[in-house]
């Protein structure tokens, strides 16, 4: 699990090196697919069946720009200065899945967008800190939700984190909202992906015509950060990594 997730982190770092005004999300997808296959892994998003009855997913990454919340299909539209792009990536390596997402800034973004990204990433770590043996899944959602709503942000309800292992999506669902003390109990050996999807305005979303890309209804930007973690020996072990990405941001 760690090897798969570190490879996702390395793939996202390759993308981070390429994100700049003028680059297209199709170009980012190509970088990701090549990196993943060159390293002997399989991109799990490519060909993923569409739960809404549309075409299967066409690419190795989801690239969601500005008001796109999740599941953006890469295209030939160049990124612009001040955009944000959430890049979600999943791979299969030696029978195990990695899944992680990072929201990148394209050039300089506005102060309010920077605060959205900072708060969403903080919320991810608040959720992670909570995921200790004996706690419950609702504790994670509560931690994420209260952190983001305190800043006036919206917490998307329709998409949630998930168990992960030999399949990319396993039980239990891991919502980014919830009540303390509710839901299944967290135990050693559990592997989950925690992935807050946070909006600057209302959390209301809609599905676009491609049956994949999800956008905010009010057109305001959304951020998405995701780590895969293991609960192991009474502690939380973050299996994916933003370390290489964050080096690029310094
Ligand atoms: Mg993901
Ligand atoms: Mg996920």
The CATH class name reads Alpha Beta
Terminal CA distance reads 28 Å
Q: What about the largest sheet?
A: 5 strands, antiparallel
Radius of gyration (CA) equals 17 Å
What is the molecular shape? Answer: globular
Bound molecules: magnesium ion
Percent range of helical residues: 25-40%
Q: How confident is the prediction overall: mean pLDDT?
A: 97
Supply the number of helical segments.
5
Indicate the proportion of strand residues.
Answer: 25-35%
CATH topology: Creatine Amidinohydrolase
Question: Which key phrases capture this entry?
Answer:
250 residues, 28% helix, binds magnesium ion, 5 helices, Creatine Amidinohydrolase
What's this model, at a glance?
By secondary structure, the chain is of the alpha+beta class. The chain is 28% helix and 26% strand.
Care to describe what's here?
With 250 residues, the chain is an alpha+beta fold. The chain has a single domain (2-249), classed as Creatinase/methionine aminopeptidase superfamily (Creatine Amidinohydrolase), CATH 3.90.230.10. It is 28% helix and 26% strand. The chain contains five helices and 15 strands. It has helices at 2-18, 25-38, 111-130, 137-149, 243-249, and strands at residues 42-43, 61-65, 68-70, 84-93, 96-105, 154-155, 161-163, 170-174, 191-194, 197-199, 205-207, 214-216, 222-224, 227-232, 235-238. The strands form four sheets. Strands 8-7-9-14-15 form a five-stranded antiparallel β-sheet. Strands 1, 2, 4 and 5 form a four-stranded antiparallel β-sheet that branches. Strands 3-12-11 form a three-stranded antiparallel β-sheet, with no helix packed on it. Strand 7 (161-163) and strand 8 (170-174) form a beta hairpin. Helix 1 runs antiparallel to helix 2 (25-38) and helix 1 (2-18) packs parallel to helix 5 (243-249). The longest helix is centred in the middle third of the chain and has 20 residues, at 111-130. The chain is globular. The two termini are 28 Å apart. The relative contact order is 0.19. The protein binds magnesium ion (2 copies). One magnesium ion binds at residues 99, 162, 193, 195, 226. One magnesium ion (MG) binds at residues 99, 162, 193, 195, 226.
